[in-house]
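This section describes the prediction task in plain terms. A model, or a person checking by hand, is given the sequence of a single protein chain and must write out its three-dimensional structure as a string of tokens. No templates, partner chains or ligands are provided. The sample shown here is typical of the held-out split.
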Amino acid sequence: MTDQDRAKLDGMYECILCACCMTSCPSYWSTGPVAEASLMLVAAGMQRQAYRWIADSRDQFTEERLAWVNDTMKLYRCHGIMNCTNCCPKGLDPAKAIVHLKEQVAETYKDGWKSMMTEQIVKNKGRESGMMYM
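The expected answer:
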């Protein structure tokens, strides 16, 4: 692992799992009575943790992890309000990790990305608490 690769992981291991990021997130609030596992997918801390593994050059499952977060009900529930970053007691920046995740997903899936997003939105239209925007 190079020093540059290691620098990408700064701020990824320090999370104390307090869930302040989750409870301060309007996307989390708006989820409604959806299964708890689905609620956890929205949480900034969970997205930050996903980025921690994706950013690690030693990880061998980057493609699978990117495919997992590439969903309108997961990664794209974040609208950049940044409450998560403002309230983190450790001073971490979950919003920055989410932005990096979105950039990496867009780069990885640039061919066909817009059509996939449209399909996801249509699929989620009838889903309880499915949002119509990205």
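For orientation: Residues 35-39, 129-134 have pLDDT under 50 and may be disordered.
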